């Protein structure tokens, strides 16, 4: 699972932060999860991503179904629609249940709605226009289960009810949270368009980077089925992910370790583990005895390799030599050409037609 922070605006002009949890592969669908602080939202979301669903978590703390909470959910849905795909599943835990019932008519792509321990908001249910799953615990001493009866009776079919026996209102037991999440994931799957082709991943060898909208410099990096976040460290950025130079060092370190592993395996040497520590700095060219450049400043990467295993000195020295042969090391030492062009269809406002 990979997570990103997403700004969420309310009707009163305030802004909060939602959390978008993404599965490892292309999402089957996007879900919006409205919840109270203190509930098991993160655990529920984790299980849903295991089922291939992407989940945007938004905290709701105002009165049930209040305008500000509904507006925040609609804005969150709009963000998903603009940057990813519109949510087809709306989930509300506690007060969030009333909020999603009120927000559904403003999210036309909604196919399934789930309430968990939610207070009744029956005036929002008659025109729901989506399948409904009501989940409630008979032992809920915060929101009485009679609220679930009112919601269920007010709704039209298709609708389902599930009693979460023994659970408390916040689903504090991990087993309860996982049961709720896995059950609603299977139920919601009946209402998803499984024939819709998943959004294609970048071609092999292609990395796509775009602003993730969560922070000033936050970037969403997509590499095949892998997704990660990059950012600048504070105070310039918000430190929500590694910096570009961190990623550069990580590439060299990973390549070094992999290359040594492959070489040792081929030689059948007793190499148990490799760890690589790297540091980037800028130095004066005059301070580098082995550099051809004699003026100005140079980039310097210090790489320290730790080899674990019953290796003799000759084997260790040979592996040290092999480290300089890893493909990324060779790329950094070779002449590199970066061809840059605008994407097809892009043009500046003052560009000629």
SSE arrangement:
Blueprint: E1 2-9, E2 15-22, E3 29-35, H1 41-50, E4 53-59, H2 67-83, E5 89-93, H3 95-103, E6 112-116, E7 131-136, H4 146-154, E8 159-163, H5 174-189, E9 207-211, E10 219-223, E11 226-230, H6 244-267, E12 271-284, E13 297-309, H7 313-323, H8 327-333
Parallel strand pairs: 3-4, 3-5, 5-6, 6-7, 7-8
Antiparallel strand pairs: 1-2, 2-4, 9-10, 10-11, 12-13
Helix pairs in contact: 1-5, 2-3
Structure summary:
The protein is built from 8 helices and 13 strands. It is an alpha/beta fold and 353 residues long. The longest helix has 24 residues, at 244-267.
The number of distinct helices, counting runs of at least 4 residues, comes to 8
Task: Please tell me what the overall shape is.
Answer: elongated
- Please identify the structural class as seen in this structure: alpha/beta
Give the spatial strand order of the biggest sheet.
1-2-4-3-5-6-7-8
Fraction in beta strands: 25-35%
Average pLDDT taken over every residue: 84
The biggest beta sheet is recorded as: 8 strands, mixed
Instruction: Provide the helix percentage.
Output: 25-40%
How many beta-strand segments?
A: 13
Rg measurement, Å: 26 Å
Protein name: OsmC family protein
Region (Disordered): 1-21
InterPro entries: AB_hydrolase_fold, KH_dom-like_a/b, OsmC/Ohr_fam, OsmC/Ohrsf, PET_hydrolase/cutinase-like
Domain PET hydrolase/cutinase-like: 90-196
């Amino acid at each position: 699972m990979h997570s990103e922070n997403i700004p969420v605006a309310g009707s009163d002009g305030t802004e909060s932060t939602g959390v978008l949890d993404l599965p490892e592969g292309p999402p089957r669908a996007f879900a919006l999860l409205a919840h109270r602080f203190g509930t098991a939202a993160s655990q529920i979301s984790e299980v849903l991503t295991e089922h291939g669903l992407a989940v945007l978590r938004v905290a709701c703390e105002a009165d049930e179904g209040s305008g500000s909470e509904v507006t925040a959910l609609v804005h969150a849905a709009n963000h998903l629609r603009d940057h990813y795909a519109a949510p087809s599943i709306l989930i509300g835990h506690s007060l969030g249940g009333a909020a999603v019932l009120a927000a559904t008519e403003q999210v036309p792509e909604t196919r399934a709605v789930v309430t968990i321990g939610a207070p009744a908001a029956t005036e929002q249910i008659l025109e729901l226009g989506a399948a409904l799953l009501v989940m409630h615990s008979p032992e809920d001493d915060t929101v009485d289960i009679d609220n679930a009866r009112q919601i269920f009776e007010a709704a039209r079919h298709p609708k389902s009810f599930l009693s979460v026996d023994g659970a408390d209102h916040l689903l504090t037991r991990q087993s309860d949270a996982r049961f709720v999440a896995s059950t609603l994931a299977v139920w919601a799957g009946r209402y998803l368009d499984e024939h819709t082709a998943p959004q294609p991943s970048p071609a092999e060898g292609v990395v796509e980077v775009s602003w993730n909208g969560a922070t000033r410099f936050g970037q969403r990096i997509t590499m095949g089925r892998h997704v990660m976040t990059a950012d600048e460290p504070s105070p310039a950025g918000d430190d929500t992910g590694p910096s570009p130079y961190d990623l550069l060092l990580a590439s060299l370190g990973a390549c070094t370790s992999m290359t040594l592993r492959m070489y040792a395996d081929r030689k059948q040497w007793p190499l148990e583990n490799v760890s690589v520590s790297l540091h980037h700095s800028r130095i004066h060219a005059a301070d580098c005895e082995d550099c051809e450049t004699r003026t100005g400043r140079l980039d310097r990467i210090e790489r320290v390799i730790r080899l674990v295993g019953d290796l003799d000195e000759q084997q260790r020295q040979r592996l040290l030599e092999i480290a300089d042969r890893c493909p990324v090391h060779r790329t950094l030492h070779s002449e590199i050409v970066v061809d840059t062009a605008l994407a097809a269809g892009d043009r500046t406002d003052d560009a000629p037609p």
